[in-house]
Amino acid sequence: MAKTLREDPADAETLSHRLLVRAGYVRRSSAGVWAWLPLGKRVLDNVSRVVREEMDAIGAQEVLLPALLPKEPYEVSGRWSEYGDLLFRLKDRKGADYLLGPTHEEIFTLVVKDQCTSYKDLPVMLYQIQTKYRDEARPRSGVLRGREFQMKDSYSFDVSEEGLEESYRLHREAYVRIFERLGLDHRIVSAVSGAMGGSASEEFLAPAEAGEDTFVDCPSCDYAANTEAVTFALAPAPVSAEHPALEEVDTPDTPTIETLAAHLGVPASATLKNLLVKVDGEITAVGVPGDREVDLGKLGEHLAPAVVELVTAEDFEGRPDLVRGYVGPQGLEKVRYLADPRVAPGTSWVTGANRADTHARNVVCGRDFEVDRYLDVVVVEPGDPCPSCGAGLKLDRAIEIGHIFQLGRKYADAFGLDVLGREGKPVRVTMGSYGIGVSRAVAALAEQTADERGLCWPAAVAPADVHVVAAGKAVPLALAEEAATALAAAGLRVLLDDRPGLSPGVKLTDAELIGVPWILVAGRRSADGVVELQDRASGTREELPLTEALSRLTP
User: Fold this and answer.
1) Can you spell out the DSSP letters for 285-341?
2) Of 112, 330, 335, 533, whose CB has the highest number of CB atoms within 10 Å?
3) Contacts of residue 129, Cβ cutoff 8 Å, sequence gap at least 6
4) Which range among 73-82, 322-331, 397-406, 447-456 shows the weakest confidence by mean pLDDT?
């Protein structure tokens, strides 16, 4: 069953969304929820098989934990509230609270606590390939960003930091092999741990225009990082007594950096932009140079698990010290002040004077105001200096296909995961967490390998090795069936298109859309025992006797 479509779905935004639907791999069930049809299920299973083989090869053991989970473990870890609206919450008939699992750190920790009591039981690595659930506010891009998705999550449990580093290394190397076998072009980039916690974090990204992640890549060295993890080593400017005194100036109708810079005749980089946000409900100011923007995602990752949101008009009520459009760090009351490292001690700025239509110049950091905490929070721009070598960075889009963390003892502490150590005393276990988006990998492959004719799967994940097309009746059909039988007997996976009533052109178009590595066509020269063999990736076609074609395909 593979019903193809001639037109793109109306709501399709990405190449993978359009082609997976048109080629009959998936169908939308509801917003963010997809049915995997026979062809799609084969590709999904092939990705899972490669993942399984490489996980087994490093000694990880597969389990299958429930997707329907009790509330209590997530309350213990704090993620029942931290996940907010992303959690699917439900009650059973007795009123008990449950959730559909978005990820399983808590449950794996409890499994190991139940099964492992001594250091002799460790190290251990467990994994599962399972359906996960997140209530995305705006599910989009087909299977790339859904509410229900397939994921491989694995967890390592060790009694020492050295053991954790070894488990992390094993997973990292396994991931490289997995993505190479799948045929995915990928980058390993530094990332922030955020709400996951831990001391080390790396992402595996598949470069693609449809990607929702932006990463930096240095053309001069091997530095690569998620934009949220980029840190610039900026030398602080020395505090100087040579700065003129702070001076307030009338600046009517200049609530934006652009209007202010034009009014005073200064570059935007000389101004100090102060963005007001709420961090777990507490108003906080974030200062950055006026020619830069605050990366709210980056800020949120730095402050996780705290919830970061923009202030609203209601937040200004009863706060005369907060004047919209004219906020300055000097004289702020009961407001925590965060700043980008560029706002270094000794630097002088033009900024708001905390009075309407008024700004202040010669506002010096360290003299007129203090920074409570420095964070790299600006949006990274092309040409920013590489933290490693100083060359100008370039930015690219990518799909996140994997993420690995050295979690440490966050969850072991929450659940009291101890084992008896070599000295006969309890030892707190340290953990790693490692995820691969299995269904996302399918979409990423579609994005990277498709061409103007349709999907073009690498052999490792394709739903079949050969797509046999009967381009005609009687003799072509008989030859196509003969070819399909011989190929299957040789151990190849075969897709046979013997649909009646369709023109050869429609069948050939569908074959190219479906994207199996080889297309074998029994058509106009079938009476002579001649078929056409097409390499889907290169597009090369050749007419040759069926026996020779079979020999080519079954070395």
Assistant:
1) EEEEETTS-B-HHHHHHHHTTS-EEE--GGGGTT-TT--TT---STT--S-EEEE-T
2) 112
3) 48, 51, 52, 62, 150, 151, 152, 438
4) 322-331
Burial class of residue 93 (count of CB atoms within 10 Å of its CB; 0-12, 13-18, 19+): exposed
Helix-strand-coil split of the chain, %, nearest 5: 30, 30, 40
pLDDT (tens digit per residue) in 441-495: 999 999 999 999 999 999 999 999 999 999 988 999 999 999 999 999 999 999 9
- Judge contact between 476 and 523, C-beta under 8 A: yes
Name the pTM for this structure: 0.86
Q: Report which residue type is found at 253.
A: D
Q: In the predicted model, what is the mean pLDDT of residues 21-43?
A: 96
Torsions phi, psi of 438, nearest 5? -65, -50
Assess whether the previous peptide bond of 123 is cis (omega < 30° from 0): yes
Is 240 a residue whose pLDDT tops 80?
no
How many C-beta atoms lie closer than 10 Å to residue 421's C-beta?
14
Residue 62 β-bridge partners: 127
Q: How many CB atoms lie within 10 A of CB 309?
A: 12
Peptide bond just before 305 cis, omega within 30 deg: yes
> For the chain, how many residues are written?
555
Token pair recorded at residue 441: 């990998």
Element (H, E) at 394: strand 394-408
In this structure, what token pair is assigned to residue 385? 């200096």
Torsion of CA 547, 548, 549, 553, to 10 degrees: 100
Number of H helices, E strands in the chain: 13, 29
| C-alpha distance from residue 532 to each of 182, 452, 478, 540, 542 (Å) | 28, 21, 15, 10, 6
C-beta separation of 335 from 283 below 8 A: yes
* Spatial CA neighbour of 113 closest among 524, 414, 518: 414
Task: Specify the pairing of strand 394-408 against strand 213-217.
Answer: antiparallel
